[in-house]
Amino acid sequence: MLTESEIRTFIDGTVRYFAVSAGQAVEVGAPYLVTDGAPAAYDYLGVITVSGRRKGAVCFTAPRSMLMVLLMRMHETDTGDANIRDLVGEVANTISGNARRDFGREFQISAPSVVEPEGGKFWPPVEARPFVIPLNWRSHSAKLIVCLE
Amino acid sequence: MSPGNGTAAAERVLMKTSPLWSRERRGPAAFGVALVLFTVAVLWPAFEVAGRLDDTATALRLVSEQRRQADVVAGALASVRDRLESFGYVDEPLAEIRASVRELDGLVRALTANPATADAFASSPVRAIRRSQALRADVEELSTAWGAFRHAVVPIAAFSGVPYADSESAGVRLNDGGRLLALETRKAIAAVRKQGPPLIALLGRVATALEAESTRLSGYLRLLMLTALGGALALGVGLAYVAFARRRATQLLAAAERQTGDILKTVREGLFLLDARGRIGTVHSASMQRLFKRDLVAGLQFEELLQPLVPEKTLHTALRFVEVLWSERTKENLVKSINPLQEVEVSFETENGQESRWLEFDFHRVRHDGKLVNLLVAVQDVTQRVRLAGEIALLRERAQSQVDTLLGVLSVNPRQLRSFLSDSDAGLKMVNARLREPARDDAAFRQKVDAIFRQIHSIKGEAAALGLSSVQGRTHDFEGQLKELREAPALSGGDFLPLTLKLDDLFTHLASIGELVARLAQLQPAAVAATDSRAMPAGAAPAASVSSPPGPGQEDDLTGTLRQLLERIASARGKSARLVATGLGDIPDVYRRAVKDIAVQALRNSLVHGLEEPAARAGSGKPGVGTVKIDFRDEGDSGFRLVVEDDGAGLNLSRIREAAVERGILTADAAARIDSKQLLPLLFRAGFSTEQVADGDSGRGVGMNLVAELVRQLRGRVSLSSGEGRYTRLSIVLPAAAAPAALAG
Questions:
Q1: How many structural domains comprise chain B?
Q2: pLDDT at B515
Q3: Distance from A5 to chain B by nearest Cα, in Å?
Q4: Edge-to-edge strand ranges of the sheet holding B353-368
Q5: In angstroms, what is the C-alpha Rg of chain A?
Q6: What is the DSSP string of B341-386?
């Protein structure tokens, strides 16, 4: 069973990215579970896979509109697909770095990959019940999905 | 090989080599000592005796050479006399006399040197004479005899010139000197005849004594030489033995080193020594390279070895622990239990990413002559053991949980259980839906908390009624978490994470009950056919067995559930109670779950707060067994009425006032002023309870709030009345036609 501190590590990584890079805090919503099927994803998915003491994946998903605004906040004028994908990768990378720092060697965490959501959903590599942590930033919504067993 | 065995083996090897080294060192030392003793005891006396023998021989040669001088003097004197008579040439005999006197003077001087002034460099004859008291006496006598002899001879020896006078007139005749010489010669001849023999005898005695001393010394020297020969032979044998022993020791040492090498090469544990400066020794087992994935370990600092493998905190604690081990005051066995490296997870960067392992470090003190000189460290890879232990613990926990659950499940009516699982699954999904509802301010989060509280309380109530303690315990903990949120000064989305985790656990637990029930169903195949799988929670299998709907005279499920709840709570609280239920088998489906929840909450309140203990009831003139009546009836167009009434003590209005003041809902003045009609609605407020401490059945102020919320959702009415010392009655009216939409929430 996942522990609170494990999930908080991933949340903190995300919050840190927004606080540092976007200069504007992200608001964390009440986490909930996905009890049937796969969690819905937004336009972009940044995924890190986890092995070791836990197995599964953690992903950050956000709509294109939010990511474009985020890029602009970062004084990035190129809001093309490649740049947006880089941005999603950076968020996932920050989450991954935070987890590496906190978990040390308990978890083996992969380098992030940015993928298209299949059928608008994130399909976790394991059968664990996914935790969804809503993220509200300005008027936009994103999600952090933690699916570890 | 176990770490203990490996360590012991290494210790044995080390212990075994020590005596070999000691013996090897002792051999040459003993040989050296023997050589010194041999030199001192045998060779030095032999040297001394040889010196004495030389002295004696020199003295003997001298004495023997001079023994004839007295006879020579006597002969020369006779020759002088004769030549003087015949006017012959006397210079030759006079020269012989002088020479003999000189020789004998030299001899006596040599033999009689003053012992007081004689030193180590004194002449050999003196040293020889001085060592023998008898000889010293003979020599003194000789000196005296020679003095007298010499006295008679010296005037003759002193003569110089020509003893004759030659003239034409008188011819050759003795001159004055010649006459005196002739006179002195006659006297000397007479004296020599008298003094000569004793002198010669004395010289002979001294010579004999010297010969005897020489013989004695020769014998002594031979003895010494024989002893020396024996000693030399013994030393030779000793030397051969030492050489042999040394060679043997070297062979044994080489064999021991070979064995140690084999052990260190083969042993699976990492074995190495740590010195006082924390440095790893030059000799270590080959498996160190495998365990630590590095080639160079010898000479490394222990800190350098650990630093890349463990978190800084663990490293710091480990180094402190090693320091403690070096303290003589520390009891080795006592501190073993606080060894931070007893089971430590280490991680290595590999080509395939990071690899985790568990290592066990065991420390042993190494002493030489009682002094702590090293720490022997044995390292073992215990990854498999740790993983296995973790899996076993998990399996044991699961097995225990399954047994507990199984026991609970077996005591529940299958239909009730099926209904519970279905309702709980729906309830948990409702909780999840509540969590998912967007909320960005504190008020919205608090509404979320209250709504979730009611859902969880409902599940807890039914679990308690069915005696499913594992579910009841989990929901109780869930409520504890909700209570904390309710009491928090401000709420945000992240605060709900513990709830989500508990929700996940509840989902998993209910699913495991479902699986358990499914397994039981396999044991009763006939029952499976009757199971309505649609009523089961997602992922769960059908219940173990299903009873037929209750026939005439049979008790309906809800009544059975309520009766179980009543019996359990009454028993737990030392009360006696009976349930009188009517109409519960006729509840329309649309109200079934709501009525069940309301009845459960109301019954719990009656048992916890309403009914008195038997003694108190007897004191009030009531029957010892209290009664709770639950009546559900269809009142036609007026709708449905549910009444829950107990014959207990009634509501304690003063306690309700106190609780309202304690919780800051009313001021003390306001509480004192308001009447019961205004006071009782407070009982339906979320979080309002007259109990100070919550337990599994009451105290969190959720039950009545749940009742009120359900009635509100069903667009019904609720009323509460009480008669002090007589009864408490909860009355609910539900509309004839329920609006399904209202039930969703």
A1: 4
A2: 83
A3: 10
A4: B280-284, B270-274, B371-381, B353-368, B344-350
A5: 14
A6: TSSEEEEEEETTEEEEEEEEEEEEEEEETTEEEEEEEEEEE-HHHH
Choose among B725, B675, B723, B684: nearest CA to B702.
B684
Q: Do B507 and A129 touch (CB under 8 A)?
A: yes
CB B500 within 8 A of CB A33: yes
* Total number of domains constituting chain A: 1
The whole-chain average pLDDT of chain B stands at: 82
**Range(s) of the domain holding residue B152:** 17-249
Contact between B497 and A136 using a beta-carbon 8 Å cutoff: no
B42 and B143 together in one domain: yes
DSSP for A2-18, written as a single string: --HHHHHHHHHHHHHHI
The complex's ipTM works out to 0.95
B4 within a domain of the structure (yes/no): no
Contact B345 A136 (CB under 8 A): no
Looking at the fold, whether B331 and B217 belong to one and the same domain comes out as no
B243 lies in the same domain as B319: no
* CA B146 from centre of chain: 96
Same domain, B449 and B581: no
What does the pLDDT look like over B211-244, one tens digit per residue? 888 898 899 889 888 888 888 888 888 888 888 8
The lowest-confidence range among B24-33, B117-126, B337-346, B366-375 is B117-126
Domain range for residue A143?
A: 4-148
Closest CA to A1 of B460, B394, B400: B394
CATH code where residue A43 lies: 3.40.1550.10
Evaluate whether B251 touches B23 at the Cβ level (below 8 Å). no
Segment A63-117, tens digit of pLDDT: 999 999 989 888 888 888 999 999 999 999 888 888 877 776 667 788 888 988 8
Residue B742 is classified by DSSP as G
Q: Shortest Cα distance from B687 to chain A (angstroms)? A: 21
Residue B201 resides in a domain? yes
Reading the block at residue B105, the tokens are 């003077």
| Structural domain ending residue among the three candidates B548, B564, B599 | B548
Nearest to A33 among B438, B493, B504 (CB): B504
Which three-class secondary structure string do you get for B109-141?
HHHCCCCCCCCCCCCHHHHHHHCCHHHHHHHHH
- Tens digit of each residue's pLDDT (9 = 90 or more) over A22-52: 888 889 999 999 988 889 999 999 999 888 7
Pairwise CB contact (< 8 Å): B538 & A36: yes
Strands B626-634 and B577-582, how do they pair? parallel
Among B498, B530, B548, identify where a domain stops: B548
User: What CATH number does the domain containing B745 carry?
Assistant: 3.30.565.10
Q: Determine the residue type at B306.
A: L
Report chain A residues whose CB lies below 8 A from the CB of B497. 4, 7-8, 11, 31, 133
Higher pLDDT, B699 or B342: B342
Q: Measured between alpha carbons, how far is B94 from B102 in angstroms, rounded to an integer?
A: 12
CATH number of the structural domain spanning residue B513: 1.20.120
Domain shared by B610 and B704, yes or no = yes
Tokens representing residue B110 in the block? 């040599």
Q: Phi first, then psi: what are they for B171, rounded to 5°? A: 75, -160
pTM for the full model?
0.53
B245, part of any domain: yes
